[in-house]
Design goal:
Number of helices: 11
Radius of gyration: 24 Å
Distance between the termini: 43 Å
Largest sheet: 13 strands, mixed
Structural class: alpha/beta
Number of domains: 2
Helix content: 25-40%
Strand content: 15-25%
Order of helices and strands: HHHEHEEHEEEEEEEEEHEEEHHEHHH
Number of strands: 16
């Protein structure tokens, strides 16, 4: 080895100082282009393997990836249990009755895995114990039976070409394997809220795209052709009876994503299949790890969330209201800050911020191109950025903006985009409309970015 080093030193001595500097720069660039990704890959896989050994879980439960060319697949997902009866038809109109009809028509079928604390894996309403203070929900969950499965659902927005429907699963506690809970308090907290949004094309009334919130990452699924946006599409969007998206919800951490064929490998253990109750009698989920195919859930709106969005805001586990701390979306035309609650209130305020439970307006993927709040308040811009599909961003209806801020969503959107684009930050550096060229340097840069993001998604999914 010393002979090789001496040979390199001799060879370099024939070159001048500028040439030697150029060689060093080339070496650094080669490391960044080749060595950096290899280092990330090796380190990530070692972490995944160590996690499997540490928590004693089978790798397929976390690691399985959907690397195939899914949009050419004709696979279907056939699940046990009675299907959801079609709701009574309502004539299309800009009314609450029609929007409620859409919420029921596109209600999800949920494959929900159950961990060693089943009562923490049943989605419930945040005020299930009769009060709107989430700080006592974990304690109340030990006393109240039955736990009536409930999810939140709404038509969040309507534009000229799309309906955007949001569904959230609130759980009493986010928990983890006892070994990891012993090692770090980042892996658990009281309360949890994860979910997904779908885009329904108004011409066909088909679900065409979906964004799932999976441990601080958006996981994309697509029902149609391949898209070319800023984020990697992770799988196919499967539906039951042509309208009900099929969702996979983890046990313990409750990450939500769109179910894939490999999820069927493990549905014969520790699984509840949840479908919307509709006009049927309620079938409560049993608080155990048995397989249950006929469980039902109710759907409630987000009105309570929106009522408390701006406050009162608690802090450090104390105070009143549903939320704690705050985030600023921007300023209105009068210069007043548009502030909303950042976290769902809880007694575990000392936890690291990124791991605490958040309302949907606070879901912010640090790897994408959209600022915090846009995904929930202006979903057309988020879907256009994520999927690269040209979409109308003129809102005929925008529920969270109307209920929380009481202003016209189009005027607010225009104002925020003009004001905030001047910040020059990585997410506000101009228009959010993404139109990547198909070829040239930008094409390769985009391909490298998508590969990197896809691997980050792989790590998030594998480490839970």
């Amino acid at each position: 080895m010393s002979c090789v080093v001496d040979w390199v030193r001799v060879k370099f001595s024939f070159f001048g100082p500028k040439a030697r500097v150029a060689f060093r720069i080339i070496n650094v660039l080669v490391f960044l282009v080749v060595g950096g990704p290899v280092f990330v890959l090796i380190t990530g896989e070692l972490l995944i393997q160590a996690n499997e050994v540490l928590v004693g879980e089978v790798g397929s439960a976390r690691v399985k990836d959907n690397g195939k060319v899914w949009w050419h697949s004709g696979d279907d997902l056939r699940l046990p249990g009675p299907h959801v009866p079609a709701p009574a038809a309502v004539a299309p109109a800009p009314t609450d009755a029609y929007r409620r009809y859409l919420v029921e028509l596109y209600s999800p079928v949920i494959i929900h895995k159950i961990g060693y604390k089943p009562e923490w894996d049943i989605p419930v309403r945040i005020d299930f114990d009769g009060n709107d203070n989430p700080r006592d929900n974990k304690a109340s969950g030990k006393k109240i039976r039955p736990l009536e499965a409930t999810i939140y659902g709404e038509v969040t927005a309507e534009t000229a070409d799309s309906f955007y429907l949001l569904y959230c699963l609130y759980h009493l506690r986010d928990y983890d394997h006892p070994v990891r809970e012993t090692l770090t308090n980042w892996s658990y907290h009281d309360s949890d809220n994860e979910g997904f949004m779908i885009r329904v094309d108004k011409k066909t009334m088909k679900v065409v795209q979906g964004d799932g919130w999976f441990h601080n990452r958006f996981f994309l699924a697509n029902r149609g052709e391949e898209t070319r946006g800023s984020e990697p599409v992770q799988g196919k969007l499967y539906v039951e009876d042509d309208t009900h998206p099929i969702i996979y919800a983890q046990s313990m951490g409750h990450g939500v994503r769109f179910a894939q064929p490999f999820d069927l490998d493990e549905i014969d253990i520790n699984t509840k299949f949840l479908r919307f109750q509709g006009e049927r009698p309620m079938v409560t989920s049993t608080i155990d790890r048995t397989v249950q195919a006929d469980a039902t859930y109710k759907i409630v709106p987000f009105d309570l969330w929106y009522r408390f969005a701006k406050g009162p805001l608690g802090t450090k586990g104390k105070g009143t209201g549903m939320f704690e701390d705050s985030i600023t979306i921007g300023k209105d035309e009068m210069g007043n800050k548009l502030t909303v609650g950042r976290f769902i209130a809880g007694i575990d305020y000392a936890k690291m911020g990124w791991s605490r439970p958040k309302p949907p307006w606070s879901w912010d993927d640090g790897w994408d191109r959209i600022p915090i709040g846009v995904w929930h308040f202006f979903p057309a811009r988020a879907f256009e950025s994520h999927f690269g599909t040209p979409l109308s961003d003129h809102y005929l209806f925008d529920n969270p903006v109307s209920q929380i801020f009481g202003v016209d969503p189009n005027a607010l959107q225009t104002h925020l985009m003009v004001k905030n684009s001047r910040r020059g930050g990585p997410k506000w550096g101009g228009s959010l409309k993404v139109a990547e060229p198909k070829y040239g340097r930008s094409h390769y840069r985009r391909a490298a970015s998508l590969w990197y993001k896809r691997y980050i998604n792989h790590l998030f999914r594998s480490l839970g």
